[in-house]
Write a structure and sequence with these properties.
With 414 residues, the chain is an alpha+beta fold. It has helices spanning 42-59, 64-79, 130-136, 142-146, 184-187, 192-201, 205-218, 243-247, 277-305, 347-354, 362-379, and strands spanning 2-10, 20-25, 30-37, 89-90, 92-97, 102-108, 112-117, 120-123, 167-172, 178-182, 225-234, 308-313, 316-321, 333-341, 357-360. The protein folds into two domains: 2-234, PPM-type phosphatase domain (Phosphatase 2c, domain 1); 308-384, no CATH class. Helix content is 32%, strand content 23%. A hairpin with a 2-residue loop joins β7 and β8. The chain binds manganese (II) ion (MN).
Length: 414
């Protein structure tokens, strides 16, 4: 496959520094966007660390999924022991060639990959954001989501937890197709139909990337904007027609669905058929006891795995699945992370989160997150009041409010 790529990035008109990073590596046919978050220089360092680890891992022959997992570890390691970098994280969306006619996209966070085919732009990636999850659950309309005050909360990012869930998408491509990678600085400022119009009308990939970044700045440039445009110049010839392809309905290629939900909770232990005969005989005697124990343990596991609460992980506010402290060896795991870090919280909110707040359902935990976010927005001094453009879109809050000058302590009421 032959590809041609262009790229552009800009700090925008509001932010002081550019926390986005991108990669155009024609040698390894690897393209990526990362949007960093975190106080001080954290965001910049996180996105740069992730991109560099991704590049080195793909160059060393790792598949893109594993390379993104490596990038996650690299961000966590980089932050370890460095007070200024604590709580930093980043999105990462990467494209590699998967075959003669296929591209593979790995994705974590709320940057996006779009696919332009026959003049029609389709979004490939799901945003890992609170607002888009509410849309997927039918609790918000896409129109409500566009101006939702909590649209900046990401639910998955690199640098938060050693376990990271990477979405993978495979797309079938033809010569003339185009993939657009972008940070949310583009998509929060420019509507999809305008992205489509601009991506379609500019044939040169470098010019297309520049035009898209310019459009974000003309619309207010409230965030850093980065765009990588990848054009499919030539695909490999197929030696023989694939009967499955011929039988398939004449539809444009569709992105594959992301990985399914995590596996169900552990079943209560049951007697194994492969046990030795004598053991089995002894087991029969104790079978009622074993069954009762199994059901009890299964019940506790069920309870532990279906409970959620809000706490801190690595100084970041997250939703845990499980119960605080764990129960019978089932330790809580990070279910969703956010962009909120501990030093942004009021002392009262901080104490509530330290105690494992909003124990119970996932929706309860999310509601509590929304109140935290609202509190942070109310105390933040960086809410956007600078935008005086004639756009009808409401002003949005900065994704990462400026960090408080010092860590909260009991003696400094906030
Ligand atoms: Mn951004």
């Amino acid at each position: 496959m032959k590809l041609a790529a262009g790229s552009a990035t800009h700090t925008g008109l509001v932010r002081g520094n550019n926390e986005d990073s991108f990669l155009v590596d024609n040698e390894h046919v690897l393209y990526a966007i990362a949007d960093g978050m975190g106080g001080h220089r954290g965001g910049e360092v996180a996105s740069r660390t992730a991109i560099e680890a991704l590049r080195a891992s793909v160059a060393a022959g790792l598949p893109v999924h594993d390379a993104i997992v490596r990038a996650n570890s690299a961000v966590i390691e980089r932050a370890t022991g460095d007070e200024e970098l604590t709580g930093m994280g980043t999105t990462l969306t990467a494209v590699v060639v998967a075959g003669g006619r296929q591209l593979l996209i790995g994705h974590v966070g709320d940057s996006r990959a779009y696919f332009l085919h026959d003049g029609e732009l389709r979004r490939i990636t799901d945003d890992h954001s609170l607002v888009e999850e509410l849309v997927r659950e039918g609790r918000l309309t896409p129109e409500q989501a566009e101006s939702h005050p909590q649209r900046a909360i990401v639910t998955r990012a690199l640098g938060v937890d050693t376990d990271v869930d990477v979405d993978l998408y495979t797309i079938e491509v033809e010569a003339g197709d185009r993939v657009v990678l972008c940070s949310d600085g583009l998509t929060t400022m420019v509507r999809d139909r305008d992205v489509e119009r601009l991506a379609r009308s500019e044939p040169d990939p470098q010019r297309a990337a520049e035009v898209l970044v310019d459009a974000a700045n003309r619309a207010g440039g409230e965030d850093n904007t980065s765009v990588v445009v990848i054009d499919v110049v030539e695909v490999d010839a197929v030696s023989a027609p694939d009967p499955e392809l011929l039988a398939a309905p004449a539809e444009p290629p569709r992105p594959m669905a992301p990985a399914p939900d995590p596996p169900p909770p552990p079943e209560p232990p049951a007697p194994r058929a492969s046990l030795g005969r004598r053991v089995r005989g002894a087991l029969l005697l104790f079978l009622p006891l074993v069954l009762v124990l199994g059901i009890a343990i299964g019940g506790v596991a069920w309870y532990a795995r279906r409970s959620y609460y809000v706490g801190f992980a690595n100084h970041r506010v997250v939703i845990y699945r499980g119960v605080p402290g764990g129960v019978l060896g089932w330790n809580p795991t990070v279910d969703q992370s956010t962009r909120l870090v501990d030093r942004q919280l009021t002392q009262i909110d901080h104490d509530r989160v330290t105690g494992g707040a909003a124990r119970g359902s996932l929706s309860g935990a999310r509601q509590f997150l929304a109140t935290l976010e609202a509190d942070v927005a109310a105390t933040s001094t960086t809410t956007t009041t600078t935008s005086t453009t004639s756009t009808t879109r409401p002003a949005r809050k900065a994704k990462q409010p400026a960090p408080k000058p010092s860590r909260p302590t009991a003696s400094t009421p906030r």
